[in-house]
Amino acid sequence: MIYLDYQATTPLASEARAAMLPWLDGPDGKGFGNPYSPHRLGRAAAAAVEVAREQVAKLLPSGGSVIFTGSATEALNLAILGSDARSFAVSPIEHAAVLDTARAHGVACHVLPCSADGIVPADSPVPAGVGLVAVMQVNNEIGTVQPVGELARAAREAGALFLCDAVQGAGKLAPPEGADLIALSAHKLYGPKGIGALWVRDGVELSPLIHGGGQEQGLRSGTLSPALCAGFGAAAALAMERTEEDAVHVEALWRRAIELLPHWTLNGSPSRRWHGNLNLRREGLDVARLMSDLREIAFSAGSACASGSGRPSHVLQAIGLDVRETKSSVRLGFGRYTTIREIEDACARLDAAAAAQGMIP
């Protein structure tokens, strides 16, 4: 199996797995304590959580706190609903965790513009009275990188908080400048599934969504998993160490894929994007048939969160593609553990399968 779905989830780094194992011990071990218990086992577990918190914090700006959550989706819900903002400004290419949360709670939403290249203009005006602006750092479907620094400044000038979904950018790009709230997820940076985090700038006040014991600085009740925290922390530390190495490797993979797929059309900006995301289309392509023909290649027709819905991609529609074009698009995602040979093999098979559908240039 050639795995090319890194935007959906990344492979677990061996270093992250090793960091988790001591905290999965059974009754004969010493790593199963509740991090909120006062005895020695509990204090050891609590110490592991705090080490992980510091490791994750190094991916983020100074002057804020890391709140562990069960996922980035929970982190975004906490930011949106906990801010008590009565009106939002959002980009039309945000993840469903942002758009659906706002819709579900009847919050007034102003939609910011988005170019055909998949970029929210840096000079997008923030309407008066908006309490929260939400723009993601790297789009999960087309990989475009947004001018979040400029947008955060515009939000601040309008008196609004700025929320950045940094799930696809954390550990790969510099942290979003000027953000008040930043959401991230462990399993998108080679850590375990089941844990995310919300970074909250000092002085920003939120209301909790989950009530009970107030374990996470009063904002998130529930017993944390030291194992998940340790895996998240180790993955974050490894990302810090390998940022440049990973970027060079991804760039080489991107260039080779582009060379081998010249007859496909790129969705989104070719330059202002994370090059570990290659979203392509071919006119008339039957993507369902393509995926059936290429079962030994794991790739996507869009966001994993929307798979099976049958709905056209709202991201591709926002950049001007019609329904037919959205349904002839595929997403290839690659990263740290992808080899050049895998990219070459996958691209050759993709082209051959497209040709078998009668799409010969």
Strand order of the largest sheet: 2-8-7-6-5-3-4
Please estimate the helix content.
25-40%
Shape verdict: globular
Please report the number of helical segments. 10
Low-confidence stretches: none
Structural class: alpha/beta
* Biggest pleated sheet: 7 strands, mixed
N-to-C CA distance: 28 Å
The CATH topology assignment of the largest domain is Aspartate Aminotransferase, domain 2
Textual characterization of the structure:
By secondary structure, the chain is an alpha/beta fold. It folds into two domains: 2-6 and 242-348, Aspartate Aminotransferase, domain 1 (Alpha-Beta Complex), CATH 3.90.1150.10; 14-238, Aspartate Aminotransferase, domain 2. 34% of the residues lie in helices and 14% in strands. The chain has helices at 14-20, 40-57, 72-82, 96-104, 148-157, 226-260, 287-293, 314-318, 323-326, 340-356, and strands at 2-3, 64-69, 87-90, 108-111, 132-134, 161-165, 181-185, 196-201, 265-266, 277-281, 297-298, 329-333. Strands 2-8-7-6-5-3-4 form a seven-stranded mixed beta sheet, sandwiched between helices. The chain has a three-stranded antiparallel beta sheet with strand order 9-10-12, with no helix packed on it. It has a two-stranded parallel sheet with strand order 1-11. Strand 5, helix 5 (148-157) and strand 6 form a beta-alpha-beta unit. Helix 1 (14-20) runs antiparallel to helix 6, helix 2 (40-57) packs parallel to helix 6 (226-260) and helix 3 (72-82) packs across helix 4 (96-104). The longest helix is centred in the C-terminal third of the chain and has 35 residues, at 226-260. The protein is globular. The two termini are 28 Å apart.
